């Protein structure tokens, strides 16, 4: 293990991930839970997350890029692995060699792949992506017959078919219903029961458990984050946030009334104030837009004051405190909790972005077998399906 001489760290509670996974496994019945671990498991650290989900029954992983898939294979992960995004021609034989399933994103992609498969290697495993309304990647609905025909005429191992919802996290979305209908029409034409069908992301798995099909693709909520405030409010389970972010005060001093601090001298003390400097800044993912955001000190909220620097920022204390005092940036202290959602709101973005932009400089420390006592496991008396 590498040493860290700076107290700033992200603590990842793997038990929380396990508990969130259990919720989706119970809710989805016999369907597979495909753990989506793209982007370094949404910034949580892919190898540790993968180890946890495999120990707890996951049999298939999804990543975004060919490189992410290869990284897992090179680290000895041998379960089913699906690349959700595009793969280039050079990767086709590599996918065959490493048993990596790739996504057929268009008719053009299918022709390209057919030309690059190597006959002496294992048959290329593909999932066909259908664009039912996201308009990102996938064969168009009216191209599906042609895609089925092309796949049947060529040497592919046709393992799965899927689509992706654009608005599953919204209330009463007409587009969502259109996408469901389009997919149903396509599935009526698919008379191959060995092909795995999957449509749901976290939001759809939570809000529309009737759509589970053969598998669900769970990303954000595996990490204990609600896909949107609407889903967070509606859901029948308290997700358990896996990531917390903490540091310690490295310097404490009195700012005299009228004195200013940090770049631009934009913050000025109205009276004598105790100010602590903490070693975290925008190069860690503590973006400048978080100026004014609260942090937790001794179970109380105190604000970040002045501009956030690259490596450090300042907070205003209610009293003088010693160097080394703990500061919770995300997570819980006493009765107070700062969720990733609060940062997202402050930054006018979605929670997905927050853990993804916590940079490599922040070490991830893993809690295994830790009890998750902060939140009750069950949110309400609503029965799980
Ligand atoms: C990222 C991704 C998911 C996971 O979505 P969440 O909202 O994080 O659960 C599922 N499917 C596809 C195609 C994705 O790109």
From TrEMBL:
E.C. no: 5.1.1.1
GO function terms (MF aspect): alanine racemase activity; pyridoxal phosphate binding
Cofactor(s) demanded: pyridoxal 5'-phosphate
Active site (catalytic residues): 38, 263
Keyword Zinc-finger belongs to the record: no
Pfam families (UniProt xref): Ala_racemase_C (PF00842), Ala_racemase_N (PF01168)
Keyword Lipid metabolism: no
Pathway(s) per entry: Amino-acid biosynthesis; D-alanine biosynthesis; D-alanine from L-alanine: step 1/1
Annotated Alanine racemase C-terminal domain residues: 242-367
GO CC term, one of those recorded: cytosol
Modification N6-(pyridoxal phosphate)lysine, positions: 38
PROSITE patterns to which the protein is assigned, alphabetical: ALANINE_RACEMASE
One of the GO biological process terms: D-alanine biosynthetic process
Keywords attached to this entry: Isomerase, Pyridoxal phosphate
Reactions listed under catalytic activity: L-alanine = D-alanine
Class of this enzyme: isomerase
Sites where the protein binds substrate: 136, 310
Family assignment from sequence similarity: Belongs to the alanine racemase family.
Record's function text: Catalyzes the interconversion of L-alanine and D-alanine. May also act on other amino acids.
Name of the featured protein: Alanine racemase
Protein species of origin: Planococcus donghaensis
């Amino acid at each position: 293990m590498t040493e860290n001489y700076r107290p700033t760290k992200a603590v990842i509670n793997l038990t929380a991930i396990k508990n969130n996974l259990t919720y989706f496994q119970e809710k989805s019945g016999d369907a597979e839970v495909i753990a989506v671990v793209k982007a370094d498991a949404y910034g949580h650290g892919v190898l540790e997350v993968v180890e946890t989900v495999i120990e707890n029954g996951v049999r298939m992983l999804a990543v975004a890029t060919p490189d992410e898939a290869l990284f897992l294979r090179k680290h000895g992960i041998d379960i089913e692995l699906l690349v959700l995004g595009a793969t280039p021609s050079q990767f086709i034989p590599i996918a065959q060699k490493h048993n990596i399933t790739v996504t057929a994103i268009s008719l053009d992609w299918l022709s390209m792949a057919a030309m690059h498969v190597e006959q002496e290697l294992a048959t290329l495993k593909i999932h066909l992506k259908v664009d039912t309304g996201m308009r990102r990647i996938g064969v168009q609905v009216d191209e599906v017959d042609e895609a089925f025909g092309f796949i049947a005429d060529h040497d592919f191992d046709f393992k799965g078919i899927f689509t992706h919802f654009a608005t599953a996290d919204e209330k009463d979305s007409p587009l969502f219903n259109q996408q469901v209908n389009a997919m149903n029409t396509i599935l009526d034409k698919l008379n191959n029961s060995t092909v795995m069908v999957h449509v749901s992301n976290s939001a759809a798995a939570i809000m529309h458990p009737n759509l589970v099909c053969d598998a669900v693709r769970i990303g954000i909520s595996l990490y204990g984050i609600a896909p949107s405030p609407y889903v967070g409010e509606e859901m029948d389970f308290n997700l358990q946030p896996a990531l917390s972010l903490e540091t310690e005060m490295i310097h404490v001093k009195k700012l005299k009334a009228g004195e200013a601090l940090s770049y631009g001298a934009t913050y000025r003390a109205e009276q004598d104030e105790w100010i602590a400097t903490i070693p975290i800044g925008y190069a860690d993912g503590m973006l400048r837009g978080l100026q004014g955001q609260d942090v937790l000190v001794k179970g109380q909220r105190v604000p970040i004051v002045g501009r956030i620097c690259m490596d450090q920022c300042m907070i205003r204390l209610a009293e003088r405190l010693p160097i080394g005092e703990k500061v919770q940036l995300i997570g819980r202290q006493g009765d107070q909790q700062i969720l990733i959602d609060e940062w997202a709101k402050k930054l006018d973005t979605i929670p997905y972005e927050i853990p993804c932009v916590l940079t490599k400089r922040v070490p991830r420390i893993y809690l295994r077998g830790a009890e998750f006592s902060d939140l009750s496991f069950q949110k309400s008396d609503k029965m799980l399906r």
